[in-house]
Amino acid sequence: MTVAAAARSARGGVAFPLACAAGAAAVLALPPLSVLPAAPLAYSALFLLVAGARPRRGLALGYAFGLGYFAFGLSWIAESFAVDAERFGWMAVPAVSGLSALLALFPALACTAFTRLKAGGAMGAMAFATCWTAAEWLRGHVLTGLPWNLTGYALAEFDLLRQPAAWVGSYGLGFVLVLVSALAAVALRADGRRRTGAFALAGLICIASAGAGWLRLAAPPPDGTDVRLRIMQGNVAQTEKWRPGLREAIFARYLRLSAAPGAADLLLWPETAFPGYLGEDAAAVDRIAEMLGPRQVLLAGAPDRAADGQGVRYFNAVQAYGAGGGPIADYAKHHLVPFGEYVPRWLPVARLVETPGDFAPGPGPRTLALPGLPLVGVAICYEIIFPGHVADKAIRPGWIFNATNDAWFGTSIGPRQHLASARMRAVEEGLPVVRAANTGISAVIDAEGRILARLGMERTGILDAELPAARPATLYARLGDLVLPPLVLAALLSAWLTDGGAARLWRRN
Predict the structure, then answer these.
(1) 333 in active site
(2) 163 neighbors 474 (Cβ within 8 angstroms)
(3) In the prediction, which pLDDT does 409 show?
C-alpha cells in the first residue's frame, strides 16, 4: 500500500495509530540507526493525514505523531533512573511518559496551525514545513528548551547531506527535509502539471542541497594546528563516581592515563572527572602540576563552588591547569539540566545529581585563552545540543571542547544521539569539536562533522589525535537562526511558482 493510499484509507480511529506509528518511524531515520528513507515516509504520511483536516483533528493527529516520536526517541532516559533504582526507579516510566506527552504538544501545535492555513499543492507543502520548523524552534527555546533529536539530524551521519547546516543550521536542515517530504506527498495526490511541478521542485531542492554539500567538502582544507591532544576516558560507573572511598582510585586512574607514553600538548578529562572540588584540593592540584610537562595544559571537568552574600553557589565546571598550578582558566556550565542539576523550588522532587544544593548557571558561552594553544569554547554535556549557543559571538574560539558524562545512560542510544548533536554543532559553527566522555563516546570531530578518531562506550583508555583546524565563520555562525526567514521566503516563492502563480499573474495582467 502506498503512502497516499494509506492516508486515504485512514478513517476514524485508524488515523491516530497510523500517526503514532509514523512518529515512531521517524526515529528510525535518526542516529544511530539513520535509516534515511524513514524520514520522508514518516513526514509525508503525517502531511497526508493532516491535509484538509479540521484544526481539532489536526491537533490530535499531530499529538499522536509526537507521542510516537518522543516516547521511542527518548526511551533511553529511563536508564538514568536505574543508577539509584531504590530512590528513583519508580520515576522511570512516569518521567519518559510525561516528557513525551509534554513535547508532543509541539507537533500538535504545528499541525493545528497548518490546518488553519488551508493551503494546498506546493504552497501547502511549504506551509506544512514552515509550521513544523516554527514549532520545532519553539521546542528548542520554550522553558529552557529541549532541541534533542531535531528533524534535521536524520542527515547527521551523511557527510554530503549535513553540510548545508553551515548555512541554514539544524532547524533549516529540518525545514528542507520536511518540505521535500511534503512535496513528495503532494505529487502522490496530484496529477498532470501539478504532479510534475511538485516532483521537480523536490528534486531541485535535493540537487541544490547536495551541491552545496559537495562544494563545502571540496573546498581546500585549512592548515593543520600541530596541536597534539590526549583525551582520557576513565570509564567510571555512575554508581561509583561519588563514593568517597573511591575518590583516590578514580583520580589515580586519570593521572595514570594522562601520563601514558606519548606526546601531547593538551590533556582533556571529561565532565566531573574529579569527584570533588578540585580547585580546593591543594594536594591534588600539586599532583597534577607534577604530572604535566612545562608546556602542557589540562582541561578537567570538576564541580566548583563559591560563597557570596546569599550563601554557597555550586557550579558544574571545566578548569584549566598548567605545570605551575592553577587553575589558570575556568568555565561554568550555563545551560543546566532541569531535574538533573536543579529542580524548580515549587516541586517536591529530589535531584538525580548528588550535590549539597542546586547548581547555579554560569554567565553563558565564553572563550578561554590557554597558553600556547588556540582559543577554546567549552560546552559541558547537555549544552552541546543547542544550535547557535555553543560559541562566544564576541570572541570566536578556534575549537569547542565538549566535556560530558553519559554514564547515566549506559549503552543505550542516548550517547549516540548526543554525539550526533556534537557533529551538527561542528558543521554549523565551522569549528572542530573535541569530545571527552567518561564512559564514551569520546571523539575528535572536524569542522565538517566527520569523526576523525573515537573511543567506544564502556572502554577505559586514551585517544591521541591532532586538533583539527577551524574553518572561517559560517553563515549560520554569524547570523544564527536569522537565516530561517530568508530560507522560508525563498521556499514560498518557489512553491508559488510551482503552483502556477507566475502564469496566473501573467494572464491577469
Answers:
(1) yes
(2) no
(3) 84
Cα–Cα distance for residue pair 381/403, rounded to 1 Å = 6
Q: How far apart are CA 271 and CA 276, in angstroms?
A: 12
Whether 351 shows a pLDDT value over 90: the answer reads: no
Looking at 136, 333, 341, 448, which residue is catalytic? 333
Phi-psi region of 279 (alpha: psi -120 to 50; beta: other; left: phi over 0): alpha
What lies within 8 Å, CB to CB, of 270 at 6+ separation is 232, 233, 234, 301, 403, 404, 405, 436, 437, 438, 442
Cα angle for residues 297, 298, 303 (degrees, 5° grid): 145
Q: pLDDT, tens digit, for every residue of 3-52?
A: 445 555 555 568 999 999 999 999 999 999 999 999 999 999 999 999 98
Is residue 381 flagged as an active site residue?
Answer: yes
Taking the CB of residue 160, how many other CB atoms lie within 10 A of it? 16
Per the structure block, which three cell numbers stand in for 166? Answer: 553551515
Q: Which residue has the cell 541554514?
A: 168
Cell 480511529 maps to which residue? 13
**Options 271, 383, 428, 448, the catalytic residue:** 271
Report residue 72 CA to chain centroid gap: 17
**pLDDT tens, residue by residue, 220-279:** 888 888 999 999 999 998 888 888 889 999 999 999 999 998 889 999 999 999 988 998
Amino acid identity at 26: A
Report the b/e string of 2-23 with b at 16+ CB within 10 A.
Answer: ebbebbeebeeeebbebbbbbb
Give me the amino acid identity at 411: T
Q: Where are the alpha helices (DSSP H) in 118-191?
A: 121-139, 159-162, 165-189
Choice among 381, 383, 428, 448 that is catalytic: 381
Does residue 244 have a cis bond before it (omega within 30 degrees)? no
Give residue-wise pLDDT tens across range 311-337: 888 899 999 999 887 789 999 999 888
The C-alpha angle with vertex 379 and arms to 73 and 398, in degrees rounded to 5, equals: 125
For the chain, how many residues are written?
A: 509
SS3 content of the chain, % helix, strand, coil (to 5): 50, 15, 35
State yes or no: is 86 an active-site residue: no
The rounded distance, in Å, linking the Cα atoms of 182 and 3 is: 11
Residue 345, CA distances (Å) to 212, 239, 370, 431, 498 in order = 48, 26, 38, 38, 53
Helix (H, G, I), strand (E, B) or coil at 96: helix
Q: Phi first, then psi: what are they for 374, rounded to 5°?
A: -60, 150
Q: Is the peptide bond before 40 cis (omega within 30 degrees of 0)?
A: no
pTM of the model: 0.91
177-192 confidence digits (pLDDT tens): 999 999 999 988 877 7
Peptide bond into 37 cis (omega under 30): no
Q: Which domains does the chain have, with CATH numbers?
A: 3-219+482-508 (no CATH), 228-470 (3.60.110.10)
